[in-house]
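Why do we care about 3D structure at all? Because function follows from shape, and shape follows, mostly, from sequence. That is the central idea of this module. The next example makes it concrete: a single protein chain, its amino acid sequence, and then its structure expressed as C-alpha cells.
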Amino acid sequence: MAQEKLDTVRFAPRGIGSFYESAIEKVNAYFRNNHISPYANTAMWIKSGVMMALYFCPYVLMVTGYAAGNAWLFFGFWFLMGWGMIGIGASVMHDANHGTYSPNKKVNNFISHILEIIGGYTVTWRIQHNVLHHTYTNIAGLDEDIDSIVLLRLSPRQPRYWFHRYQYIYAWFFYAMMTLFWMTLKDYLQVVRYKQHDLLVKQKVSLSQAIWRITWYKFFYYGYMLVLPILFSGMPWYDVLFGFLIMHGTAGLFLSCVFQPSHVMVDSAFTLPVTTDGNKRMTDSWAVHEVVNTTDFAPDNRFLSWFIGGLNFQIEHHLFTGICHVHYRKLSPIVRSVITAFGLPYHTQPTFLRAVLEHAKMLKKLGRE
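And the structure:
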C-alpha cells in the first residue's frame, strides 16, 4: 500500500520589496553594524547552565536522601524541577532544535538531545514544531499545536461540541497534563501518524527505529525519575509519584500559558487555504500569515523573557527561527517598525497576565460561537 502523504499548502509568493525582505535586510544590518553573531552569546551559554542546574541539582539532593522524612522539602525539590524543566524546554532544547546555538550543526544536535533526558524525543518534536507548527501556524488540520484532543477547541475552523462551552474552565487541567501525556504516550502516537504521512523520511529514521528509540528513552526517563527516587530518596513511593505529578503539572500549565496566548487569541486570523485546480493555496505569503496569526506579550518584562527563552517575542521568533532568542528583545522594535510600515497588524499584549486572560476569553468565545 502506498504511503499516505500529508496534504500540503502553498503560500502566495512574498514578492519583491515585501515587508519580509525589508525585515530581513534591517535585521541583517543590525548584526552587521553591531559586529555580533546571530547565534548564542556568552549570556546564552551561562543561562543554559543555570537552567540545567535548576533541574538537576534538586534531583541529586532528592535522590541522595537530603529530604528524607521532610515532605515539604521533598515536594519543593519536585516543584523546582518543574521550573527547571520549563527552563530547559524553553531556553535550551528549543534553541538547539532550531539550530541557533552555533553554526556548527553537530553542536546544536548534541544539545538538542537534552530533550530525551527530560522525557521527549527530538524527531517527533522537530516534525510537530519545526515542520508543521512553524510552516502551517494556526491552519486547522496541519498545525498540531491547535489540533489536540477533542475536548479542546482551539480554532474556529474546528468542530464545536456542547462541552466546549465550558472549556475556558476545564482547559487548564488538560494544559497541566500536557508534558505528562507527552512523556508517556504522545511520542508513540505521533511517530505512527508521521509514518503514515511520510514525514519520517527527512528525519532519516524508520518507524521501527523510532519506536525502539522512544521505548528505550522512556525506560531511561522513568527509571531515573521514578525508580531511583523510590529506592534512594527515603520517601514512600506514593510521595515520589505525587512529586512527579507536581513537577509535570507545574511545567505543563506554565508552558501552555506561554504557548497558547501566542497564537490562540481573538486577533488571530486562523486563515484556511482555498482549493483551486486541485491545489490548496493561501491568499497570503507565509511571512504575512505568521504575523497575523502570532502575538507577542510582556515585551518589557526582562526576567520573564530571559526565563522562557524569548518566547514572549513570538512574532520575531516565527519570522527568524535561525536567530538565537537572546537577540529578540533588540530585534523587536526593528521588526515592529517594518510590519507597521507595511500596514500589517503587530499583535501584542502588555503583560503575561493580560495575555493569559485574553486567551481565556478566546477559549470562551470558541466554546460558544
